[in-house]
């Protein structure tokens, strides 16, 4: 009877907050503090398979390591605790010792299992995550060295990457900061001069850095990034276009949609406007953010099963699988849209996405979250639990953001 009563009770913000805090502190963070440590070489494992198998000699990516640093810094700032602080400091030490280039500055793309560089490209996407992580580490701990490193990388990006003619940033550089012809983050991407993805993560990085270092140039660049999304990156179809030529002409097909990026951008844009404390910018950003959230709700939400579809390819074909990170971003983004608009449809989508995630995406046997499941929740085999792209940043951040938003709202 107790189980039936629980199932018949509608979810509330109070229950959502409690469940996501429990997920964060009993499952996500402990996995990375214990299962994902590399005790032999230092830092964290570069690759762990979905069955828990650790590939000890796997290379380690700067994106993974920066995201771990951000996660534990943000968790320590929100929750306190010596173990969270120690893990954040471990991540900061490893990133600084093995990914920071002592000669040319910035962070390498990849190192081997022992920490020696194997791919010394300077992709702006990776530099953005290093800034994001180091600034958050300073914000949480007061470690001045992390702030200095974040500022140094910001200045390198502005010196070498900023496009003075068309705005925005070049994507990829050699170790010594010459522009590379191939700007792709992975083989799945379009080789384009500029991408939404890099600029979105520069936006979040610059937002966090600005909160602790309100430099005038940084303010200008953060405002310009927000304006790019308002005027250029988000198209008339109410989606964030993925790839662009140098002059911001979209390439790669306008049918290519990432629902996870749309809903993620919807709340990150508002966070940037709030950090800048610009009411006029916030009004314009809120209009775009609301339209992005509406499109994700209307087109990307699985009304039958719950959860957010991955998106559509260049031909407009829908990928109905559900990766872990769009579910995390949907929980935050739909909750944020509900708070901004008062529309209960967004709140329903928040609960439905968490219900799907809680049931199917969490790995109850091996810990953390599965990378990808089918529309009806079947785990896609052969995916990693930890890897260059599979990290604790999206799901841990979703938990932290939900807790903060519900606490600020002060209501069930």
Structure summarized in a few sentences:
The protein is mainly alpha-helical and 412 residues long.
Overview of this protein structure:
- This protein is 56% helix and 8% strand.
- With 412 residues, it is mainly alpha-helical.
- A three-stranded antiparallel beta sheet has the order 2-3-4. Strands 7-8-9 form a three-stranded antiparallel beta sheet.
- The radius of gyration is 20 Å and the shape is globular.
Gap from first CA to last CA? 24 Å
**Strand residue content:** 5-15%
Number of contiguous helices: 13
**Content-based structural category:** mainly alpha
Computed Rg = 20 Å
Write down the secondary-structure element order.
HHEEHHEEEHHEEHHEEEHHEEEHHEEH
Oligomeric state: single chain
Q: Strands of the biggest beta sheet: in what spatial order?
A: 2-3-4
Percent helix, as a range, is: 55-70%
Key traits:
mainly alpha; 3-stranded antiparallel β-sheet; 56% helix; globular; disordered N terminus
Write the layout of secondary structure elements.
Layout: H1 2-8, H2 13-35, E1 48-49, E2 60-61, H3 62-79, H4 82-99, E3 110-111, E4 117-119, E5 122-123, H5 124-141, H6 144-160, E6 172-173, E7 194-195, H7 196-212, H8 216-233, E8 243-244, E9 250-251, E10 257-258, H9 259-276, H10 279-300, E11 311-312, E12 318-319, E13 322-323, H11 324-341, H12 344-361, E14 372-373, E15 384-386, H13 393-409
Antiparallel strand pairs: 1-15, 2-3, 3-4, 5-6, 7-8, 8-9, 10-11, 11-12, 13-14
Helix pairs in contact: 2-13, 3-4, 3-5, 3-13, 4-5, 5-6, 5-7, 7-8, 7-9, 8-9, 8-10, 9-10, 9-11, 10-11, 11-12, 11-13
């Amino acid at each position: 009877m107790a189980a039936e009563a629980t199932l018949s009770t509608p979810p509330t913000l109070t229950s959502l907050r409690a469940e996501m805090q429990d997920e964060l502190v009993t499952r996500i963070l402990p996995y990375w503090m214990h299962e994902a440590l590399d005790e032999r070489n230092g830092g964290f494992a570069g690759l762990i398979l979905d069955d828990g198998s650790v590939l000890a000699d796997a290379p380690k990516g700067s994106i993974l390591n920066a995201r771990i640093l951000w996660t534990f810094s943000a968790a320590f700032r929100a929750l306190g605790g010596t173990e969270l602080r120690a893990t954040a400091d471990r991540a900061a030490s490893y990133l600084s010792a093995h990914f920071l280039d002592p000669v040319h500055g910035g962070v390498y793309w990849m190192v081997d299992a022992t920490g020696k560089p194997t791919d010394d490209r300077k992709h702006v996407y990776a530099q953005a995550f290093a800034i994001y992580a180091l600034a958050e580490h300073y914000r949480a701990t007061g470690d001045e060295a992390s702030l200095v490193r974040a500022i140094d990388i910001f200045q390198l990006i502005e010196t070498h990457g900023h496009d003075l003619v068309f705005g925005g940033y070049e994507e990829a550089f050699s170790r010594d900061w010459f522009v590379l012809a191939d700007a792709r983050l992975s083989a799945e991407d379009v080789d384009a001069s500029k991408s939404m993805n890099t600029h979105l993560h520069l936006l979040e990085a610059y937002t966090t850095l600005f909160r602790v270092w309100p430099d005038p140039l940084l303010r200008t660049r953060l405002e310009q990034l927000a304006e790019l999304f308002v005027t250029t990156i988000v198209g008339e179809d109410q989606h964030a276009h993925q790839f662009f030529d140098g002059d911001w002409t979209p390439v790669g097909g306008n049918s290519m949609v990432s629902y996870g990026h749309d809903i993620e951008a919807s709340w990150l844009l508002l966070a940037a406007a709030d950090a800048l404390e610009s009411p006029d910018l916030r009004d314009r950003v809120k209009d775009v953010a609301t339209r992005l959230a509406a499109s994700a709700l209307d087109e990307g939400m699985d009304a039958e099963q719950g959860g957010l579809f991955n998106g559509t390819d260049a031909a407009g074909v829908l990928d109905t699988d559900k990766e872990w990170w769009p579910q995390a971003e949907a929980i935050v983004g739909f909750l944020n849209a509900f708070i901004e608009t008062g529309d209960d449809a967004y709140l329903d989508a928040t609960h439905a996405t968490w219900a799907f995630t809680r049931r199917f995406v969490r790995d109850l046997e091996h810990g953390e979250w599965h990378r990808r499941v089918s529309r009806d929740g079947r785990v896609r085999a052969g995916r990693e639990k930890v890897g260059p792209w599979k990290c604790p940043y999206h799901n841990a951040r979703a938990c932290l953001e939900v807790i903060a938003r519900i606490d600020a709202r002060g209501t069930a």
